[in-house]
Design goal:
Length: about 150
């Protein structure tokens, strides 16, 4: 059984790489949003033309990014959403809600200090992990039924 996994959320650390490397022996396929921050912010104006107003600049980019995000979440068996420490990821919360609304299996990666702010997101998740390695162990268990050594 191949699992399709969408990795959403924080883009400032290597958590995605850690999960992908840890799952290299598992039958999984990964997808994610564009993680180049500048490309993600500027795709709308780079493709559709400049906007003098920052709202419309961001609006164009958000809509184009949503094409990729919606497809990735809709086609995923599991959606992993990471909430980082440094920035508030409102888009990650939106992605988690969208995944939950679609009935997707949701795994949230977050730290204790955000527990209260994310209580509704955590309630929708099937697992709340603190480390990328825990996500890998969840995937291993789901696919192979084996527990960590």
């Amino acid at each position: 059984m191949t699992l399709s996994i969408y990795l959403s959320g924080e883009i400032h650390t290597d958590w995605r790489d850690q999960i992908i490397a840890g799952a290299k022996d598992l039958d999984v396929q990964f997808s994610s949003p564009v993680t180049d921050h500048d490309a993600s912010d500027d795709c709308g104006v780079a493709i559709l033309g400049a906007e003098p107003n920052k709202f419309w600049h961001d609006h164009k980019g958000a809509k184009i990014n949503a094409i990729r995000t919606r497809k990735g979440i809709e086609e995923a068996d599991i959606v992993v959403v990471r909430f980082g420490e440094k920035y508030k990821q409102w888009n990650a919360a939106f992605d988690a809600g969208y995944a939950a609304a679609l009935g997707k299996s949701l795994i949230v990666l977050s730290q204790d200090e955000h527990q209260h702010a994310l209580k509704e997101v955590h309630a929708a998740a099937l697992a709340v992990a603190k480390e990328p390695a825990q996500v890998v162990e969840i995937l291993r268990y789901v696919l192979k039924g084996s527990l960590p050594a």
